[in-house]
């Protein structure tokens, strides 16, 4: 009898433990990911090969259950974020993932543009419309549009940039009506919307969306980037370096394994990212010898400063290099001696 009770109790405990792993808290856990070589991902037709490698760095992120929450609380390089700090209000997981993938597309386009222009190569863009990255609650778009929708026309007009779209709408007044043509799941839809002020103290009107240009580069030579399911804009700098290295003669890697992070603007400015210390850990574990970190013009709490703290803590021999622009990174590498 006691044996049956004991076995039954064990089964109950087992079921409770297994079941609790599927009960998620309103938090996300982030932890160091990996450093991934870019040469297999980026392909410039006829591009030069490198002796070393440029690598993007990633962070792993997932919803927290009670066990991962507890582990993160006592781990140096795992962080907890409330859902509201990761996802926008009323944003689903699918919409969040779509937003991250579209941000990656924007990052790649900026990287291609900067690399080709710096290399003196031809580049133009085919413009397709604007991607909806988010919808503001209480604004006209809320009832119609979703993250990932592609707006291709407004009042039968096509635009050559998202800024043209913004400027067109900004010229209108509250309660003016516009016609939106958009694509969702490869199907075309039309909707009418009345413009609304963003708040009672503002004269600025709109439909209430955040947006990103939907455009594709046309380059000579042709380029292909297979970023798969990698999301977010933080690989911009490293994409730019890899593309430029393939476009130009010589080898900027000089035989080293070079990791880094930072967004890339259209004018070559490197911007800050989140999770810099976790990326230092990821790069160290992947054998990187050099790491480029956004310097943020020397701010006291810059990505570069945070990177130095993590590098010292994990006792890595990896060289941490501050950069504000693509040219900073290129100049550093041009002066770097070849690895023996």
From TrEMBL:
| Family matches, as Gene3D superfamilies | 2.30.42.10, 3.30.230.10
Domain Lon proteolytic, by residue range, is 226-336
Q: Which domain of life is it from?
A: Bacteria
What EC designation does it have?
3.4.21.53
Residues annotated as catalytic = 234, 279
Regions that span the bilayer:
5-25
For whether the record's keyword set contains Iron, the answer is: no
* Coiled-coil features, chain-numbered ranges: none
Q: Which UniProt keywords apply?
A: Hydrolase, Membrane, Protease, Serine protease, Transmembrane, Transmembrane helix
Catalysis performed (reactions): Hydrolysis of proteins in presence of ATP
Entry keyword annotation includes Protease: yes
Which Pfam families has this protein been placed in?
Lon_C (PF05362), PDZ_2 (PF13180)
InterPro entries of this UniProt entry? Lon_proteolytic, Lon_Prtase, PDZ, PDZ_sf, Ribosomal_Su5_D2-typ_SF, Ribsml_uS5_D2-typ_fold_subgr
Query: What are the PDZ domain coordinates in residue numbering?
Result: 111-155
NCBIfam families on file: SepM_fam_S16 (NF041438)
* Membership in a protein family: Belongs to the peptidase S16 family.
Q: What is this protein called?
A: endopeptidase La
From which source organism is this entry? Peribacillus huizhouensis
Q: What is the lineage of its organism?
A: Bacteria, Bacillati, Bacillota, Bacilli, Bacillales
């Amino acid at each position: 009898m006691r044996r049956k009770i004991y076995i039954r109790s064990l089964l109950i405990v087992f079921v409770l433990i297994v079941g609790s792993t599927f009960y998620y808290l309103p938090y996300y856990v982030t932890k160091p990911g990996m450093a991934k070589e870019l040469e297999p991902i980026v392909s410039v037709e006829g591009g030069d090969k490198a002796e070393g490698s440029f690598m993007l760095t990633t962070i792993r992120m997932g919803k927290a259950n009670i066990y991962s929450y507890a582990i993160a609380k006592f781990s140096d390089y795992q962080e907890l974020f409330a859902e509201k700090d990761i996802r926008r209000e009323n944003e689903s997981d699918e919409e969040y993932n779509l937003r991250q993938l579209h941000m990656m597309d924007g990052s790649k386009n900026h990287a291609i543009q900067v690399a080709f222009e710096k290399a003196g190569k031809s580049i133009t863009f085919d413009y397709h419309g604007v991607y909806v990255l988010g919808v503001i609650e209480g604004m006209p778009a809320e009832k119609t549009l979703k993250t990932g929708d592609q707006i291709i026309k407004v009042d039968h007009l096509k635009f050559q940039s998202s800024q043209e779209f913004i400027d067109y709408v900004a010229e209108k007044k509250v309660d003016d009506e516009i016609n939106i043509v958009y694509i969702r799941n490869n199907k075309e839809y039309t909707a009418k919307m009345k413009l609304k002020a963003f708040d009672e103290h503002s004269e600025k009107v709109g439909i209430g969306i955040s947006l990103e240009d939907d455009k594709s580069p046309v380059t000579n030579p042709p380029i292909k980037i297979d970023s798969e399911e990698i999301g977010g804009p933080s690989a911009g700098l490293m994409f730019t370096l890899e593309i430029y290295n393939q476009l130009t003669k010589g080898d900027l890697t000089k035989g080293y394994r070079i990791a880094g992070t930072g967004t890339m603007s259209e004018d070559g400015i490197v911007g800050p990212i989140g999770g810099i210390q976790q990326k230092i850990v990821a790069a160290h574990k992947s054998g990187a010898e050099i790491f480029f970190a956004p310097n943020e013009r020397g701010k006291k709490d810059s990505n570069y400063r945070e990177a130095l703290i993590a590098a010292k803590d994990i006792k890595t021999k990896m060289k941490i290099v501050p950069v504000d622009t693509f040219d900073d990174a290129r100049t550093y590498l041009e002066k770097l001696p070849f690895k023996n």
